[in-house]
Each structure stands twice: as C-alpha cells, then as structure tokens.
Write a structure and sequence with these properties.
CATH class of the largest domain: Alpha Beta
Structural class: alpha/beta
Number of domains: 2
Radius of gyration: 19 Å
Order of helices and strands: EHEHEHEHEHEHEHEEEEHE
CATH superfamily of the largest domain: NAD(P)-binding Rossmann-like Domain
Number of helices: 8
Number of strands: 12
Shape: globular
Bound molecules: nicotinamide-adenine-dinucleotide
Distance between the termini: 22 Å
CATH topology of the largest domain: Rossmann fold
Strand content: 15-25%
Strand order of the largest sheet: 3-2-1-4-5-6-12
CATH architecture of the largest domain: 3-Layer(aba) Sandwich
C-alpha cells in the first residue's frame, strides 16, 4: 500500500492537534512533519494527547519540507500566516490542503497562478465538515427562490477572524445564485452586520461554541432557516482526510471540499 507522507502546519493549535490525531490513526498515512511557532521541540503526537511518534514540532516550514519530503502539507495556521506557508509548500512542489481561513479572492487568484506555475495542486476549503458543505449547497438552492438572505455565524471565542471563511463563501455563493441582498436601509448601523456580496453577515463569538452557521431566507409571509452545527472539531476530520487522499489527483487550485466529494 502507498503511504501518504503528511506534514501538518499549525500542529500545536486546536485544529492542528486534531489533524495530527486523525492522520496518526490512518493505515495509509504517515505523519512525517509538524510545524508550529508554539511548542517547538515537543513531540507532535504527545502535544495532540497521544503516544510519542518521534515527530518533533519544528519552527521552520521550509527546513521541515526539505528534511521530510512530504507528499501533502496540511495548513491549519492562522490568517496572517497561511498565504506565506502555502506559497512555501507549493514552491517546494508539495500538494497542499488548506483549512486556515482568511485568504482573500486576490490571494486565491495568486495561489491559482502559483499552482499552475509549479504544476502542483492545492485544495482550499473554508469548512471541511460535510454538513457545512451541504448547508452551503442547500442555501444556493434556496437563494433561487427567496428575495433576501442574512447569515449568522457563531464560533468559539478564540477565533481570530470575523466574519468566518464559511460565511464569506456562503454569501458569495448565494449572491451568485442571484438572491436579493438583505433589506437595504439608507445608512446602515453596524448592528445590521457586515455585507459580503450584498449579504449581511452577523458574527457571534462566545465560549462554549465550536462552529455554527444559520442562513435565513425571507420572502413575503415566510422565512426559511438552514442551520449547521459543528459540535466538535472531529466533525472536520473526515473531510480533511478525504482531501489528503484526493488532493494529488487534482489540477491546479480547487476551492471547496465539494471539489473532492
Ligand atoms: P489555533 O489558534 O488554535 O491554532 C493555530 C496554530 O497555528 C497555533 O498553534 C499557532 O501557533 C500556529 N501558527 C500560527 N502562525 C504560524 C506560522 N507562521 N507557522 C507555524 N505555525 C503557526 O486556531 P484553530 O482554532 O486551530 O484554527 C486554525 C485555523 O483553522 C483558523 O484560520 C480557523 O479559522 C480555521 N478553521 C478551519 C476549519 C475548516 O474546516 N476549514 C475549521 C476550523 C477552523
């Protein structure tokens, strides 16, 4: 059986630790590298709450790629780091699975060009939960039939970016499906949310939450609410593992988990 050699960037973070655990549990994958700017030198598996694997967390992505020759690099760092990391991995011809959010449409355009130049694929998914992908798909379907929509996204208090990558992508997908934007007011107060592609997004950050989103559609005399809840970070792992298995068969940049489903 062919083993997939996996490097995890952001290995000491909440999502990175979950990915380390998931990868170590697969018969067709081997964790070969772990990178983070925190907990450098500690064993990645132990940091993830497992038995020691003798893969220490390293500070330098480029050095770790050179030393471990991974097949796939998984990035769950943070919005201010992800672009640089993915560029480093692609320039080393390592296929990338990107879960960190915060990439702008311009960043995605640049990554697409780099994928072409390096002839190396990359999958970027703002949400690896299968249910969230379906929530977005159902929202696109509903958008064709309703006049207006608003999004409420709710996440744990430690999330640094707002609105979430999932909410931004949902708004763009709804707008493309030609739903009218939320009811406009002449001068909107901040409480009306931040508009993306004309759709207001409301961000809630509270301890106790993981990752949740409601898309509320309105038309005369009726509303439709489509809601998805990730109640633990394990919800993202089947999607991440699927992406690790499929990414090397992709061409160029693919955005959204549906690209491999
Ligand atoms: P976190 O803060 O717990 O972890 C981020 C980790 O990245 C930290 O350990 C930090 O030290 C490390 N890091 C930051 N910059 C780095 C760099 N340049 N090099 C190496 N390591 C670096 O955050 P989290 O909750 O694990 O979330 C991580 C990212 O994943 C966020 O962008 C979040 O929005 C996103 N996320 C995506 C999904 C999805 O399904 N795509 C799901 C949940 C979270």
């Amino acid at each position: 059986m062919e083993w997939i050699r996996v490097l995890v960037a952001g290995a000491a973070g909440r999502m990175g630790r979950e990915v380390v655990r998931a990868v170590c549990g697969q018969e067709d994958m081997e964790l070969v590298g772990a990178v983070d700017r925190a907990r450098v030198g500690e064993d990645a598996a132990r940091v993830a709450g497992m038995e020691v694997t003798s893969v220490p967390i390293a500070a330098s992505l480029s050095d770790t790629i050179a030393q471990t020759s991974p097949d796939v690099a998984v990035d769950f760092t943070l919005p201010d780091s992800v672009m640089g990391n993915v560029e480093t991995a692609l320039r080393a011809k390592v296929a990338c699975v990107v879960g960190a959010t915060g990439l702008t449409p311009a960043d995605l355009e640049d990554l697409g060009a780099l994928c072409q130049e390096m002839k190396t694929p990359c999958l970027v998914a703002p949400n690896f939960a299968i249910g969230a992908v379906l929530m977005m798909r159902f929202a696109v379907e509903a958008a064709r039939h309703f006049d207006a929509a608003e999004i409420i996204e709710l996440h744990h208090a430690g999330k640094v970016d707002a609105p979430s990558g999932t909410a931004l992508r949902t708004a763009r997908m709804i707008a493309e499906a030609s739903c009218g934007a939320g009811v406009p007011t002449p001068a909107e107060p901040p409480a009306r949310g931040q508009r993306e592609a004309g759709i207001p997004i409301h961000s809630v950050r509270l301890p106790g939450l993981v990752a949740h989103q409601e898309v509320i559609f309105g038309a005369v005399g009726q509303t439709l609410t489509i809601r998805h809840d990730s109640i633990s970070r394990e919800s993202f792992m089947p999607g991440v593992l699927l992406a690790i298995r499929k990414v090397r068969g992709l061409k160029g940049l693919v955005v959204g988990l549906e690209g491999v489903m």
